């Protein structure tokens, strides 16, 4: 990968056969395996395990392409004040910056070289993402774009705004400490605007919306001084390659 070519990989839970879960779990260190076991529902264990195995496996595969051997379970992360993980890198490693997201049925990871990056995925059957939530949390300019849309278009726009907002606040490492109404997107063409509460430059951001499965949406945010030069490497994860890392 290059500084102008961030990477996004996603892993649908439905693609993972029952025997594969043991291998994916083996990519996690003991403390993450124990944390996963504390989930009450199987689907939450699956989402967590898939996301963290995908993150660790993707980093190991990228490191290997750079001539560096790091087992997935050996990666260590620092956690920012608002929960954003960043890899603690060996001196010879490329300057990876990462973000991950998971929702029911899907995990995703985004990796950039020395640039802030954020990713968010959502399950389209989520029922609490409604126009009422938009009125409470979206910027007025975004709410205005929802007026007059039919049901299908309204749902698409709601999920687009929500995932894009999540991707941005995850990229800057602020989480929900950053007011969601302090910045607004337009969807066509895709762009962002900030009010006086956020000292940021819209010209320094690259955004993408993707549809990784029929039932999920994904948004990416990348800080980049020349967004027009960005070429995104986005694809389903190579599950077979992840399995080989566990052997």
Secondary-structure map:
Layout: E1 7-12, H1 18-26, H2 30-37, H3 42-65, E2 76-79, E3 85-88, E4 96-103, E5 106-113, E6 117-123, H4 131-137, H5 140-146, H6 151-171, E7 183-187, E8 190-194, E9 205-213, E10 216-223, E11 233-236, H7 239-245
Parallel strand pairs: 1-11
Antiparallel strand pairs: 1-5, 2-3, 4-5, 6-10, 7-8, 9-10
Helix pairs in contact: 1-3, 2-3
Descriptive overview:
Helices cover 34% and strands 28% of the residues. The chain is of the alpha+beta class and 247 residues long.
Question: Any idea what the radius of gyration is?
Answer: 18 Å
Content-based structural category: alpha+beta
Report the sheet with the most strands, covering strand number, pairing sense and barrel closure.
4 strands, mixed
Order of helices and strands: EHHHEEEEEHHHEEEEEH
Précis, in short:
By secondary structure, the chain is α+β, with helices and mostly antiparallel strands. Helices cover 34% and strands 28% of the residues.
Features:
four-stranded mixed β-sheet; 247 residues; 11 strands; three-stranded antiparallel β-sheet; globular
């Amino acid at each position: 990968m290059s500084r102008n070519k961030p990477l996004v990989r996603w892993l649908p839970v439905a693609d993972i056969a029952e025997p594969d879960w043991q291998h994916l779990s083996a990519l996690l260190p003991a403390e993450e395996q124990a944390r996963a076991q504390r989930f009450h529902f199987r689907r939450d264990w699956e989402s967590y395990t898939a996301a963290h195995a995908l993150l660790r496996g993707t980093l190991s595969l990228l490191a290997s392409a750079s001539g560096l051997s790091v087992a997935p379970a050996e990666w260590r992360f620092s956690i920012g004040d608002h929960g954003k993980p960043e890899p603690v890198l060996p001196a010879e490693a490329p300057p990876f910056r990462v973000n991950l997201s998971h929702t029911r049925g899907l995990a995703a990871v985004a990796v950039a070289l020395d640039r802030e990056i954020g990713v968010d995925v959502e399950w389209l059957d989520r029922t609490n993402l409604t126009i009422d939530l938009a009125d409470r949390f979206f910027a007025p300019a975004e709410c205005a774009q929802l007026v007059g849309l039919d049901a299908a278009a309204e749902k698409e726009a709601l999920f687009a705004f929500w995932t894009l907002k999540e991707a941005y606040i995850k990229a800057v490492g602020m989480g929900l400490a950053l007011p969601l109404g302090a910045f607004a997107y337009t969807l066509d063409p895709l762009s962002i605007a900030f009010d006086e509460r956020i000292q940021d430059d819209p010209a320094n951001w690259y955004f993408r919306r993707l549809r990784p499965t029929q039932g999920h949406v994904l948004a990416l945010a990348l800080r980049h001084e020349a967004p027009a030069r960005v070429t995104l490497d986005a694809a389903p994860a190579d599950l077979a390659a992840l399995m080989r890392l566990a052997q």
